[in-house]
Amino acid sequence: MEEKQTTQVEEKKPSMIEHSFETLLWSTRFFVLLAVIFSMVGGIALFIVASVDVWHVAGTVFTNYFGHAGHIPNFHEKIVAELIGAIDLYLIAIVLFIFGFGLYELFISKIDVAERSAASKILEIHSLDELKDKLAKVIIMVLIVGFFKRAMHTTYGGAMDMLALAGAILALALAFYFMHKGDSH
């Protein structure tokens, strides 16, 4: 009986060519590291650009209120628009970070340091569907911020325009509600 089990184990042993091909095939997953690295680089670049934008806004506020230059026309609208633009960049940077972390965890390895951290739950990715879900939520937030930014710069000609704006805001609120309705937290 032992000879029969030993023979079955030996029969399942892959050939040298099959083993080499499977090793090569499995090793190609490391190409995902390119997407991980460049997602991180892109995210860091966006964080820097958004932070410089916020710094510029702070300098403009300081100059407008405490400097000797005259007051800037439409000052509040310009400041709010620039800050919303910075928020948009920060959110897109977060998309890149979640994408990079998710790809790494799905294709390469779990991030041991993150698992020991209590703050890592948002970046834990266990499946491709979970990665897509997290990305979709942040992308929807980017779209909402983009809508808000455009709505600020739109001129409204009458009651129908205001009604359309109210309808769009209601649709966004409902979409946001249903997006979070299934969440367990």
Description:
This protein is mainly alpha-helical and 185 residues long. It has a domain at 30-153. The protein has helices at 2-12, 16-27, 32-66, 75-108, 112-116, 128-153, 159-181. The longest helix has 35 residues, at 32-66. The termini are far apart.
Could you name the ranges where pLDDT drops below 50 across 5 or more consecutive residues? none
Output the number of helix runs: 7
Alpha-carbon Rg, integer: 26 Å
Helix content: over 70%
Structural class, by secondary structure, is mainly alpha
Shape: elongated
pLDDT averaged over residues: 81
Give the distance, in angstroms, between the N- and C-terminal Cα atoms.
55 Å
Give the SSE order as H and E letters: HHHHHHH
Number of strands: 0
How much beta, percentage-wise? under 5%
Largest sheet: none
Task: Offer a concise description of the structure.
The chain has helices at 2-12, 16-27, 32-66, 75-108, 112-116, 128-153, 159-181. By secondary structure, it is mostly helical.
Any key phrases for this structure?
elongated, mainly alpha, 185 residues
SSE topology sketch:
Blueprint lengths: L1 H11 L3 H12 L4 H35 L8 H34 L3 H5 L11 H26 L5 H23 L4
Helix pairs in contact: 3-4, 4-6, 6-7
